[in-house]
Automatic annotation (TrEMBL):
Protein name: DUF1501 domain-containing protein
InterPro entries assigned to the protein according to its UniProt record, in alphabetical order: Alkaline_phosphatase_core_sf, DUF1501, TAT_signal, TAT_signal_bac_arc
Domain of life: Bacteria
Cited SUPFAM superfamilies: Alkaline phosphatase-like (SSF53649)
Matching PROSITE patterns: PROKAR_LIPOPROTEIN, TAT
Length: 479
């Protein structure tokens, strides 16, 4: 693999993969090439909520704090392991970084993973690692790899026929690496009907299921008919398979059904009681958690809520890292904890698997891994003369934290460990992305042998179908 690809090269290859998928056609609808079991059988979860910390969440500043070192002018950067004090959680002996107290109080309802290890793909790009996390495949691929949400939508179908099976909340394509992000926000060869239903701004969620302003129902229906005609006359209609054409049409039919359903009210956050709304209202991500809760209650299948990746903003802490993380924690702490409590109170948490994750972690000094360092991308002085350099600036792939709740996941459990001294790398029970995906699919009852034939070769949910379930995370006993 070429370890020196830049963003443009990655995008070109990703775009080529999309065209290759179109040229290759698509699998037969509803037929698994070699699936020996029925999807959804023996499952512990019906719904997945992915809480995506886009931009690289430093584990030592969040869910795996190390020794706290306050800022001093002209201090050595190598001295700094954590820029926040640690605070106790509800679990004996387990601490989180200051600012995450609310999530810490609900950890008796879930599992803390402290040993996620990201892939080695050379020069680190957020979009490449995010592509890998969401699809389980390292880019570029000769076919357009489906997003995890699309696999789930295809194999299980909608839980509620009028609620889109795959809903993406908070992601815009007008900021940051827009085209690169589009490369994995897709159903790939599975077809458009299994792609994400986008709600860029959760406060305007109702607008996502309404016709544009000034368009009445009859005009909307005429536009739907025109849409079908455009499909037939488009490159997909001319060169695509029957499956692809029907998939595009079904995606519009699903949107039309939602428009006229009582469930569409779930998208209107203004109907939420003020006391509850105020807890979630920390920004777009917080309101996204509220919308995710409401949609879960209405029968959503897969929901992604993202803090959104934008270079040098959010979790992308190349500068003013400490100050930035104070704000990021404020945005996520209350809403995530409330989401857990609300779903637990209504009984939905038992069958809803919630996953909090990020593409990789961060470290003050190491770019990549201690033994596989890669090209430095942003200057980081060894001596910290200004507060703006106080924080976890470089991309670190040898350790990271994840949280899991509900859906058959153990309660009050901690898995894996990182070193307490730099480099704070994984030293016990490393877990990689294929294991994460297969554990999620297992909870949903999607068999590991699920595959489709694309370009005359099998394409599995995990590369070569070799993803292994991390059985220690689950309440059930797996032989």
């Amino acid at each position: 693999m070429n370890s020196n690809w830049n963003r443009r090269e990655f995008l070109q290859r990703a775009s080529a993969a999309t065209m290759a998928a179109l040229a290759a056609g698509a699998p037969l609808s509803g037929i698994l090439s070699s699936c020996k079991g029925k999807a959804g059988a023996n499952s512990s979860a019906d719904t997945v909520i992915l809480l995506w910390m886009a931009g690289g969440m430093a584990h030592t500043e969040t869910f795996d704090p190390k020794k706290y070192t306050p800022f001093e002018k002209d201090m050595e950067g190598n001295r700094v392991l954590s820029t926040f004090k640690s605070v106790p959680t509800v679990l004996d002996g387990i601490h989180f970084s200051d600012g995450l107290q609310s999530i810490g109080k609900v950890m008796d309802k879930g599992t803390l993973i402290r040993s996620y290890v990201a892939a080695d793909m050379g020069h680190i790009l957020h979009s490449r690692h995010q592509y890998h996390w969401h699809t389980c495949y390292e880019p570029p691929q000769t076919v357009a790899a489906p997003h995890m949400g699309s696999w789930i939508a295809k194999e299980l179908g909608p839980k509620n026929p009028v609620i889109p099976a795959f809903i993406d909340i908070g992601q815009r394509f007008t900021v940051g690496e827009a085209e690169e992000l589009k490369a994995f926000h897709t159903a790939g060869f599975l077809g458009n009907e299994f792609g994400p239903f986008f709600i860029p701004d959760p406060s305007q969620g109702l607008e996502s299921v309404r016709p544009p302003v000034g368009m009445d129902a009859k005009r909307f229906e005429r536009r739907n008919q025109l849409y079908n005609e455009l499909i037939n006359n488009s490159p997909v209609g001319e060169f695509g398979s029957d499956y692809q054409r029907e998939s595009l049409k079904r995606s519009m039919e699903q949107a039309y059904a939602l428009l006229n359903s009582p469930e569409s009210k779930a998208f209107d956050l203004h109907t939420e009681p003020k006391e509850s709304y105020d807890i979630y209202n920390t920004g777009r991500f917080g309101l996204g958690c509220l919308l995710a809760r409401r949609l879960t209650e209405q029968g959503a299948r897969f929901i992604s809520v993202t803090t959104e990746y934008e270079p040098f903003k959010g979790w992308d802490t190349h500068e003013n890292g400490h100050t930035r993380l104070e704000e990021m924690k404020r945005q996520i702490d209350g809403p995530i904890a409330q989401l857990i409590k609300d779903l637990d109170k209504t009984g939905h948490l038992d069958r809803t698997l919630i996953v909090l994750a990020s593409e990789f972690s961060r470290d003050m000094m190491v770019e990549g891994k201690p033994d596989i360092k890669v090209q430095e991308q942003v200057p980081q002085p060894d001596i910290l003369s200004e507060p703006k350099f106080y924080g976890m600036h470089r991309h670190f792939t040898d350790g990271g934290s994840m949280l899991m709740f509900g859906g058959g996941i153990k309660k009050g459990f901690v898995y894996g460990k990182t070193a307490d001294e730099r480099p704070c790398k994984t030293i016990e029970n490393p877990i990689k992305i294929a294991q994460v995906h297969q554990t999620i699919y297992h909870a949903l009852g999607i068999p590991p042998e699920t595959q489709y034939e694309v370009e005359k070769r099998p394409f599995y949910t995990t590369p070569d179908g070799k993803g292994q379930v991390v059985k220690e995370l689950l309440t059930e006993k797996i032989a």
